[in-house]
Structure formats: structure tokens, C-alpha cells
Amino acid sequence: MITEHIKLFPDRKTTLTTYIHEASNEMKHCTVKPAMLVIPGGGYRFCSERESEVVAMKYYTRGYNAFVLRYSIGEDSAFPRPLEDAEKAMETIVSRAEEFMIDPEKIAVAGFSAGGHLAATLGTMGKIKPKAMILAYPCVIEEMLQVLSPQQPSVDDKVDSTTPQTFLVAASNDDLVPVINSIRFAEVLDENKIPFEMHIYSIGGHGFSVAEYSTCGAPQRRAAIEVCQTWVDLSLKWLDRVMN
């Protein structure tokens, strides 16, 4: 694995971490791979480690070259800085596509909670848009913006015909970012005839990440983990269709 920590701007703390498969003479037919850009959550106050490398590894082990964006947070998180970070990450991946051994036409983004908001902002407003979006319990509607950083825009009203195909996952008992966020985003995707797939689990709460004990924590969440664990495989099967 080739790992690199790339500083995206000289005057910012934002970084892009790479997880690149090394070229192999045994697998010459699949040297060029699709890419997955992971954007962790954290309410624009921090970048959650539970939604960073562990997520990237899920896609890495299934043939993706993966990247994790750690974007502007805290006092530096006012819009449009996080979007600029995401745009710079996309620009970096595309401009170094040959070096990273990725197909620049097959870049997906996966965002979680506030990172789901940023991923959706990139997909609706970004200069370089991903081929596909995975939004996990995203915060996207105007009524929820008070839980994010200053001036973050709603994105449900930014969807248009150029918005990427989207995979949505959430839990109906999420008491931090209500599931209506995902439902509303699905509605506007449908209104704009953008294909999407959505999975809403009956339990899981907020922040279930890849639904493993290492990311979900307490033993009392066993039932939630067992219910939500299927979403990663479902997203990979969906990506197989969308990215080809």
C-alpha cells in the first residue's frame, strides 16, 4: 500500500491521505482502479476517525484506491472553506490520476453526517463533481443547519440534472440528524430524475459508520450493528453498476 499525507493548501491544516494499491505484475489487467474519496463527519468541529481510515479500507480491500479528506473544522469551517478543500482534493486526485493509478472518470465520494453534507455540497456545487455519491446519515436540509458550522448552505435545493447518482443510508431512529434529511434528498433526486438507491434501517441511531464494534462502540449497540452492517456491501454492489 502506498500512503501519503498531502497538504492541500500551504496556509490550512487540511490534508488528503492516500491508500493506493501498489502495481503488481501478477495483476496487470487491473492496474487502473476506481477511486473513493472519504469525507468523515464530526459536525464541522472535528473529523471523526471512526469514519475515516476504517471506511477507506472497506473500499480499498474491494479494489478501490482510496483517499481520506480532513477538511477545515472549528473556527476555520465557515463556508466556503470546506467546499474549497473538497474541490482541491478532487483536483489533486484528477491531476495525479496516472500516478495514483485511478480512472479520473470513476471517482466516488462517501460522506458521513456533516461529511455527508460536504460530499453533497461537492456533488451539487463543486467545480469537479464525483461520478457517484454515498451519503450516510447526511445533514442536508436548511432546518438542520444550526447543528453545523456558520453559513453552511442547504443542499437539497441545489440538486439539478448534473448531480451524481446517489446512495443514501440512514437509520429511522437517528435522534441527531433526523432521517427526513435523507428522505428529502431522495425526493429532490427523484424530482430531477437522478437515479438513487436508499436504505433506511429501523435501528442504528446516528454515527454507525461501517457498523462494526471498532466503530460503533458500546455492547448495547449490538442489535444496531447487526442490522446496519449490510450497507457497505450494498453500496459496493451499487457502485459496480454506477461506475461502469
Shape: globular
CATH architecture: 3-Layer(aba) Sandwich
Distance between the termini: 25 Å
Kindly report the CATH topology: Rossmann fold
- Find the count of extended strands (DSSP E, 2+ residues): 8
Beta fraction: 15-25%
Number of domains: 1
CATH class: Alpha Beta
Radius of gyration: 17 Å
Helix-strand category: alpha/beta
Indicate the mean pLDDT.
92
Task: Please report the number of helical segments.
Answer: 8
Range of helix content: 25-40%
Element order, helices and strands? EEEHEHHEHEEHEHHH
Features:
single chain; 244 residues; alpha/beta; Rossmann fold; 8 helices; 20% strand
Describe the structure.
It is built from eight helices and eight strands. With 244 residues, the chain is of the alpha/beta class. The protein has a single domain, classed as 3-Layer(aba) Sandwich (Rossmann fold), CATH 3.40.50.1820. Strands 1-2-4-3-5-6-7-8 form an eight-stranded mixed β-sheet, sandwiched between helices. Strand 5 (102-112), helix 4 (114-125) and strand 6 form a beta-alpha-beta unit. The radius of gyration is 17 Å and the shape is globular. The mean pLDDT is 92.
Task: Write the topology of this structure.
Blueprint: E1 5-7, E2 15-19, E3 33-39, H1 53-60, E4 65-70, H2 81-95, H3 97-100, E5 102-112, H4 114-125, E6 132-136, E7 165-171, H5 180-191, E8 196-201, H6 213-216, H7 222-228, H8 231-242
Parallel strand pairs: 3-4, 3-5, 5-6, 6-7, 7-8
Antiparallel strand pairs: 1-2, 2-4
Helix pairs in contact: 2-4
